[in-house]
Each structure stands twice: as C-alpha cells, then as structure tokens.
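The instructor's notes for this session suggest beginning with a concrete chain rather than abstract definitions. Hand out the sequence below and ask the class to guess, before any prediction is shown, which regions might be ordered.
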Amino acid sequence: MNSNLVRFRATYICVLKEFTNCQNNLRFVFIPSRRKLSTTNHCKNSGLNMSTTINCYSSSENESFNTGSGIIGGYEPAKISSNILPSAMKTKFFKLSHTNDNEDVIESCVRILHRGGIVALPTDTLYGVACLAQSTEAVEKLYEIKARNPLKPVAICVGDLYKVCQWTRFPQGLIQSVSKTLGLEDKLDCQRPSSPGVLYGLLEDLLPGPVTIVTERSPSLNNTLNPKTSLVGIRVPDHKFIKDLTNRLREPLALTSANVSGEESSLRIDDFRSLWPKLDAVVDDGEVGTRYVNKTLQYAKEGSTVVQILNDGVSFKILRPGCAYENTVSVLKCKYGLKLTM
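After discussion, reveal the predicted structure:
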C-alpha cells in the first residue's frame, strides 16, 4: 500500500489519509486540536511511514497520540471506509465530550452555520440536519440534501421557552382559555405577543422535550421558510448541546431528521453516512433517543410528537404521534382542558 499523508488545515481536525499496513482500511482520523505535537516523539511507534511529515494535534498537554492502540488525543478515532467517502470530502466531524461544555465545538458550528452551512447534530430523539432558519439559501440547500418535497414544511428549533414566543404566535383563545383554567385572568393585561406570559406553564409542561408545537408564525420569522403556510412547528429539544448552540446563535435553526426523505430515521451518525459528503459538519454524540421508549418502539425513531394548536384556542390536533403522545395529550386535556380533535 502506498503511504500518503495529507495535511488538512481545518480547525481542530487532523487528517490521516492512509496508514501503512492498515488492517482496518481507514481513510480519516479526526483529532480535537489545541497543541501541535512533535511528529518524531509522538508518532514513531504509530505504524505510520515517516518519510512524509504530518501535523498532529492534541487537546491538552498530557494527551497521548497512539494510533496503534486506537486512541488519539484521548478520543477514539473515526473509522471510515475508503469506499464510502471521496478523498476530497470537506465535511468536519466533531465528537462531543461529556466532561466539558463543548464550547469549541459550538463555536465551530456557529461559524459554519453563519456561512450558510448544513450541520448534522444530535437531539433528544434523533439525529437531525440543521441550518439557520433566517437564511433562505441555507434552507434551500437543506431541502436539496434531504431530497425533500419543497411543499413539505420544516420545523424550527430554539433554546428556551421565551424564544418560542419570539418566533411564533399563539391564538388569543388559547391564552384566554389557559388563563381561565389557571385563574390568571388578571394577568391578561400584561400579556405580550412575544412573551409566554400565562402560557409559560403550558409550554414548560411540554418543553424542553420530544414535542413539536405547530402554531402561527411570528412576523420576525423568515417569510421564505415554509412560504405556503402561515404555520410553523417549533421545538426545544432536551439536549444540552443543541440548546447551547441555538442560544449562542440567538436565532432559530431549521431542523429536520438526518435522513433522505422517506428513509428510516437515525439514532447514530453511521445511520446517515450517505449524507456525510453533502454536509459541512457532523456532530457525534453516540446513540441518541434511548430515553424514550413506548409500547411500539424500542427507541424514539418516530421522532417528536407533533401537536397543532387550533385557531379556536380550545382544541388541538395530533399531526404525528411520535414518542411523547400519551404525555402530550394528558397535559393538554387533563391539565389545561383543551379538546383533542381528529
């Protein structure tokens, strides 16, 4: 096998194109980078052909670089077969840490998204692909990657309950119904369209979590997003990374499942590897969705429960059962007195 090492200058990533005597047919290895390491001191026992130089990086002063043991910079290397990815693929891969705030990954994703990029990332239910909802060009690219029907709306994602009302509008009938149920009629004079107000408790009972609420869109939302409807679905996933990312962006993400439209949803990044070359970045958090189990699913492959608040403000419709159907119906019917319509 010809040994060919390629320098790759993207932030936090080092690429090894091929290994000498490589038994796993590896093409890429991704390393969170902070400090340049000495090739001679750290790579001489790695099995690499040292006739060509390479820039190696590690994320701390004491982390090891040892390809022989399968550990690089304290991380498992990404093992990607050479027959899956083209050698010129520019997709960046990030592995989330459960011991820090992943600020470096967040900042990298912010830069990619601000450039109109598409990022695959974990949610509380499935892996999704996302872009800035306020960028028409990025949304068009998202539809193209998904091979999604342009008439099929895409939901948006925000980081907290107050931002839900910044980008949506709830029926006045719902506000009056909830205030009456909770005995908060005297608070209605202080109710602002862009603030949860008396609806805060209802939203808090459903979000963050595996629920997408469909209601009227705010005038602030990009009018080329779902242009054929005045409605929009919005959710706050119960996943720290995506909440931190959207709060850092201070604007919503257009978010849909990480798969080609019509194919099975993804719980691991390997499940959507056919999309990798089309994406600007992939954020890996291992398997997701394992916390949501219901009678028919081992995992949450049906995604979030999609509920529409109807214009009368006193009824709702389930558009997709998803993995939180029972809890969503119970909250809206039993606690807030809303009617389920078919």
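Then share the key points. Confidence is low (pLDDT under 50) at residues 1-88, 295-299. DSSP finds eight helices and 16 strands in the chain.
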